[in-house]
Amino acid sequence: MISVALCTYNGAKYLGEQLESILNQTRSVNEIVICDDRSSDATADIVKAFQDKAPFPIYFNRNDSQLGSTKNFEKCLQLCQGDIIFLCDQDDFWMPEKVEKLVGYLEKNPQQQMVFSNAGMMDEKSERIEGHIWQEVMFDDTMQKIWQAGGAAQILYKGYVVTGATVALRKSALDNMLPFPTSVKDLIHDAWMSISLALKNQIGFVNEELILYRRHSAQQVGFGGGGEAVSFKQRFSRPRAEKLLPIQEELHRLESTLGLLKQHYPEVPASQFAKLESHRDFVKFRLELPENRLLRIVPIAFKFLAGKYYDPQKHWWKTLLGDMIE
């Protein structure tokens, strides 16, 4: 049985297009479970229209109080009856073969508990725009090879790669990861689910654009600008505390995430956490570099020669440059 877990909040503008794309799949789903976080627009009316014409049940659940995106998905996933569940946002568009290809992947790879795909981009007018999601998160050929070689957890610990709207998973995978934590900033449902399964190498990917991801101003979560880039001049002139703040926040995120993973998955051997702990220690090293630039040269050189600065997920040379001169 195949379920769709769809969370809504004032998404009437695009919801019909999303639901229509689910109805038009080459392999049909068996149910759509919708959890609405107290919308004040026409969401309920749109769902009712699709309930009347869909060849499978569409369940509409309105929350008694607002839960927020992560807890709303937690509730929705628990209400699904299917053995395989697709996560679904309210404002995207599924390519016709999405269900067929992701279910097919899970059927052919019984050791995998979750699968995700790439996604194309579209705008508010449903017109295709340049680029795709994996470009945004730098999940290129190099990163994909690292992932397939067992490095998925390390990749996801450093930065988020998996977009929830592209995910299908086995319901049995939810057993240990619930309830979803809310204590770590930016560790939303899809990030937590993916890194949890990556610890056991139980998450794979399909290198195809199986949804169109909509970029618009009203989306609850999504990809946006990462802020203005820091210029070379600013690296010399801005206060050191300003440079250290995001590193402090990153260290807190890493330590908190690591603690949650160890708490939820005590059966995972310590060796699985070693690379995560190594990255956390490197971030701590960066935070504790001396204020005197000359005194940083030797320790930074040692870390560079040890390969700690090289990171295919990021512009690693900018990190090295910043640590040297700021």
Radius of gyration over all CA atoms, rounded: 21 Å
CATH topology of the largest domain: Spore Coat Polysaccharide Biosynthesis Protein SpsA, Chain A
What is the CA-CA span between the terminal residues?
56 Å
CATH superfamily of the largest domain: Spore Coat Polysaccharide Biosynthesis Protein SpsA, Chain A
* CATH architecture name of the largest domain: Alpha-Beta Complex
| Number of DSSP strand runs | 9
Helix/strand structural class: alpha/beta
In this structure, how is the largest beta sheet organized? Answer: 9 strands, mixed
The coarse silhouette is elongated
Strand content: 15-25%
| Contiguous uncertain segments of 5+ residues | none
Can you characterise this structure?
The protein is α/β, with parallel strands linked by helices. The chain folds into two domains: 2-214, Spore Coat Polysaccharide Biosynthesis Protein SpsA, Chain A (Alpha-Beta Complex), CATH 3.90.550.10; 232-325, no CATH class. It is built from twelve helices and nine strands. Strands 1, 2, 3, 4, 5, 6, 7, 8 and 9 form a nine-stranded mixed β-sheet that branches. A hairpin with a 5-residue loop joins strand 6 and strand 7. The longest helix has 25 residues, at 240-264.
What's the gist of this structure?
The chain has 326 residues and is an alpha/beta fold.
Characteristic key phrases:
44% helix, elongated, 9-stranded mixed β-sheet, 2 domains, 326 residues, 12 helices, 9 strands, alpha/beta, Spore Coat Polysaccharide Biosynthesis Protein SpsA, Chain A
